Amino acid sequence: MPLTGEYLGRPVAINDLDTANQAFYRHCASGALHLQHCSACDLMRYPTTTACPWCAEPEYRWKPVSGKGTLYSYTEVHHAIDPGFRPFTPYLILLVELDEQAGQPTAHEALRVNGNLAGPGGELASAALVRTVGIGSRLKVVFKDLGQGIALPLWTLDDEAEQPAEPWRYPGE
Fold first, then answer.
1. Do 152 and 146 contact (CB within 8 A), yes or no?
2. Which of 75, 115, 117, 121 suits 146 as a labelling partner, its CA being 20 to 30 A distant?
3. Following DSSP, what letter does each residue of 90-135 receive, concatenated?
4. Model-level pTM greater than 0.85?
5. DSSP for residue 82
6. Residue 62: half-sphere exposure toward Cβ, Cα within 13 Å
7. How far is 102 from 112, CA to CA, in rounded Å?
8. Closest Cα to residue 24, out of 58, 60, 55, 54?
């Protein structure tokens, strides 16, 4: 049975054949971030996949992670193509390097999870919050409930972590 929900007025569905993604989003709905953990090489991976990208082992288990990390990269969207996102421009699409497995298996291929910047309650971030976030900002995961058994992981500033005095932002922003 597919997982279904709604986000910003749009239907969301995860096909019942996509068991790994269904499991990922069900974990999110429980309020915890879990990632696939390879049984052979001991590395976690994201996004979900049928085999480990490092050693090709198909066997894995789900491992909970802290959901905390550092902003590695981002893009700032000023012109939303989807009407559901237009009231939230500018908004950020983030790439967050998780504390678990940081710099592994290499500095260029560490464990990173994408998502939008949000406020602490899971609503897309205000323009004021967008202006405070940059490379090096410390973030934590929050979840936006999309429906029965499905939630979307988003990122917000980690208010318990030390933040950089001036996080790096792309020139002109």
1. yes
2. 75
3. SEEEEEEEESTTTT-S-TTS--EEEEEBB-TTSSBPPHHHHTT--B
4. yes
5. S
6. 15
7. 9
8. 60
**Is residue 145 within 8 Å of residue 154, measured between CB atoms?**
no
The identity of residue 131, as a single letter, is: R
CA dist., res. 69 & res. 150, Å (int): 23
Which residues are registered as beta bridge partners of 75? Answer: 93
d(CA 36, CA 43): 8
pLDDT in tens, 37-92: 999 999 999 999 999 999 999 999 999 999 999 999 999 999 999 999 999 999 99
**Amino acid in position 61:** R
Amino acid letter, residue 14: I
Q: Which of 124, 122, 111 is nearest to 82 (CA)?
A: 124
Helix (H) or strand (E) holding 29: helix 19-29
Cβ(1)–Cβ(148) below 8 Å: no
Q: Which contiguous run of DSSP H or E holds residue 25?
A: helix 19-29
CB proximity list for 104: less than 8 A, separation 6 or greater: 43, 110, 111
In the block, tokens 């193509």 appear at 81
pLDDT tens per residue across span 96-109? 999 999 999 999 99
